[in-house]
Fold this protein.
Amino acid sequence: MADHRQSAREAIRTSGFFSDDRIASSKQFVNPEQPGYVGFANLPNQVHRKSVKKGFEFTLMVVGESGLGKSTLINSLFLTDLYPEREIPGAAEKIEQTVKIDASTVEIEERGVKLRLTVVDTPGYGDAINSKDCFRPILQYIDDQFERYFHDESGLNRRNIVDNRVHCCFYFISPYGHGLKPLDVEFMKALHHKVNIVPVIAKADTLTPKEVRNLKARILEEISQHGIKIYQMPDCDSDEDEDFKEQCRLLKAAVPFAVVGSNQMIEVKGKKVRGRLYPWGVVEVENPEHCDFIKLRTMLITHMQDLQEVTQDVHYENYRSEKLAINKRRAGGAAAGAVAAGAAKEGPPEEKDKILLEKEQELQRMQEMLARLQQQMQQQQTTQVAGANNVQSHHV
């Protein structure tokens, strides 16, 4: 028996099944981190990978009179042509033109990051002779997007909700006036609690630097005077670096942004730049000393997430609260109406008491009639028994 076990061990050893080489060649799970390191510090990387894979959505609305360079500025901001087939109406058509909502969506990809950008334009705004209530279609469009998101959020399929809510509104102010027009004030007062408004001074190359500073101060003064709430960039955290804090300070000081848009590339000192060529020189769009175009784009890109969060946490929550309150009032009104209808069907209290009294009297009469019938039946039975006894005594 011992010889048999020894031969079996020798056979296994010579077969190489449990040899050291085979054990060393097998793959083993190795902890990639250092001892004492759990690993939840990598959670931001997981969120980053998931966000990049899913992509981002952003909706930008541009509002302003015709001829202020809205389309040119948007094309300059995102380096794309959002309006390849746009037809510019003539002067006769603009007189009777009404405000329309034109939404264009484009997929932009940069360094593997995808952005679904929707630009909502409002052709016809402020072009008519009578521009009273011309912002009503814009207000209705914003409410419709809130209503659509509210309906999708309340439905069964909440996983693939498309967010078409307006996250930011560039409101273009004409540089030819001396501040805000009455239409500008009415528009911002009607929409400042529904959307993030960013005031923009269009065609800043028509003004001198001193005129730009005076116009900015005048616009901010009128905005504060009328109680208009424009988008306020958040304060920097204490742990941020000094460069980022200085950048945020410069961006806040540049509001309202005085911008210049251009889709043309001009050669200046052997370098291709985006700008406008004039007899007295070149206005460079991306030069911070010439206009606030770079500051506006930096604000939009660095605060894009904050714009979405403010839309979700403030503007949409206000709309949602109002919507739920209206639905609750409607449900309470329907219940009160049903109770009132039932009371009206039964009649007033005096008539109800009268009906109950009549029913009680009728029930009492029926009980008296039943008692008389029972008494008559007992008398008949007594008479029949007495007659039967008389017949039996007669036979005996």
